[in-house]
Structure prediction request, 414 residues.
Amino acid sequence: MHAHRYVELIVGLFVLAGAVVLMVMALSWTNFGASRVDGYRVIAKFDNVGGLTAKAPVKMSGLTIGRVESISMDPDTFEAVVVMQIRNEYDNIPTDTFANIYTAGLLGSQYIELSPGGSFDSLTDGDQITMTQSAFILESVISRFLFDRAQD
Amino acid sequence: MNAASLYIRRIGRVVINAAVHAGAMTIFALRLIAVAWVPFTRPRDLAQQIYAAGVLSLVIILVAGGFVGLVLGLQGYTILSSFNATESLGVMVALSLVRELGPVVTALLFAGRAGSSITAEIALMKTTEQLSALEMMAVDPIRRVMAPRLLASIIAVPILAAMFSFVGILGGYFIGVVVLEVDAASYWGQIAQQMDAFDDVMAGMIKAVAFGAVIALIAVFEGHYAEPTAKGMAQATTQTVVISSLAVLALDFVLTAVMFGT
Prediction:
C-alpha cells in the first residue's frame, strides 16, 4: 500500500512538473499573448517594408509598445500597408508621430520605431501615421554610396 | 530453369513475409488503439507504468538535455560570432531544441531506455506463458498489459521532451550568458520575440506525442511476437531499438515537412 502511494506521488509530481515546464516555455518564453495585445489599431503606409514581418515589435524610445498585426498592399498606390496594434496604456501618442523601420543589430530582425511629434491630438483606433520612412535596404545604400564616389 | 525458379521463389517468400509482418502489425496496432482508453479506468496501473517508463527515464533525459544545450550554446556562439550576431544565440538554441532536438533526442533515448524494457518484459511474459494464462482467465492481455504501456508512453514522452528542451535552453543560457558573456536580455528577448507558443512549442509537443505512440506500438508488438526463446527475446529487444529509432527519424521528417514546410 505504501509503495503504491509513493509511486502515485512521484508520478503526480512528474506530470505536474511536465505541465509547469511546458506552460513556462509556451506562455512566458514565447511571444504568446504578444500577438493579441489589448490595444488599438494604427496604420502606416511605407514605400518599402524590407524584411518586416507580422508580430514584429513596435517600439518607442526603445521600449516595445505594440506589435505589427498584418502587412498588406494598397492596390491603388502599391504601398505596403502596415497595421499595428498599440497597447491601450500608450494612448497619448501625438498624431504627427514619425514611423521608421529599423533593424536590430546589423543583420537582425526589423521593427518599427515611432518618434513622437509635438501635436496635442493623440492617435486613436484606425488612425493613420502619415510620416513614414522606408526600411534600410543595404544594397541601395551601398549603391548610392558607390555612385556618389564615382561622381566625385 | 530450376535454379531460376528457386531464386524467384525466394524473392516471393521475402515479399510475402514482409506483407504478413506488416499486416499483423497493422491489425495489432488497430486492436491496441481501440482499447487505448481502457487504462484510464485503472489509474493505479497507469501510474505504475508512467513511473516505470517516464519517471525512471528522467535522469538520462535531464542530463542529455543539459549537455545538448551546452553544446548548442558553444557551437552556436562560434558560428554566430563570425557574423557578429551572437545576440541571436538564444533563439537559435531555443528553436533547435523545441522544434527538433527536444522531441527527437528524447524519443531516441526513450526507445533505448524504456522501449527495450517494455519489449523484454512482454517477451518474458510470453515466454513464461503469463500472457496465455491471462487469456485462459478471460483477461485480454492487450487491454490489461499492452494498453497501459502505450498510454503511459504517450503521456510520458511529451513531458520528457518538454523537460529536455527546458534544461537545454538553460544549458545554452549558462554557456552563452554566464561563460561567453552574451547579453542576457538579448538571449531571452530574441527567444521571446521569435518563438511561437503554437507554431513552435505545440508543434514540438505534437511530434513528441506521435513519437511516444510509435515507440510503444513497436515495443509492445515486438514483445508480443517475439520467439519464446532466450535468443528470440534478445532479437526482439534489439529490433525494438533499431526499428523505433528509424521510425522516429522517418516520422520526424514527415511531421516537419507537414508542420514547418512552407
